[in-house]
Design brief:
Blueprint (H helix, E strand, L loop, with lengths): L5 H6 L5 H30 L4 H13 L3 H17 L13
């Protein structure tokens, strides 16, 4: 993803309507997958897995999926994360 300054972002074109429409069709499936994966990751963490172990498990799961599906799930997760206001404890918090 390109790193834009505010001025560059104003000039950067938004995605074409046909790509947005295609993404909207896939969004519902990817959103449900993201919800499912999030529950499973919480179960792993609650069971004592380290965040690094959970990352490896998620990576193994996503890398076994068709690339477009895994990419869409990742995109949904990142946008959801970006929509969540950071807290003092979560802003740029490294895995521990």
């Amino acid at each position: 993803m390109t790193d834009f300054s505010r001025d560059e972002l104003r000039r950067h074109p938004r995605p074409p309507a046909h790509l947005v429409a295609a993404a909207e069709q896939d969004y519902h499936w990817a959103s449900a997958q993201t919800d499912d994966f999030t529950v499973k990751v919480r179960v792993l963490l609650d069971a004592g897995w380290t965040p690094f172990e959970a990352v490896v498990e998620v990576y193994r799961t996503l890398s076994s999926q068709p690339s477009t599906g895994a990419t869409m799930v990742s995109a949904v997760a990142l946008v959801r994360l970006a929509q969540t206001p950071p807290t003092a404890s979560s802003a740029a918090a490294p895995l521990t």
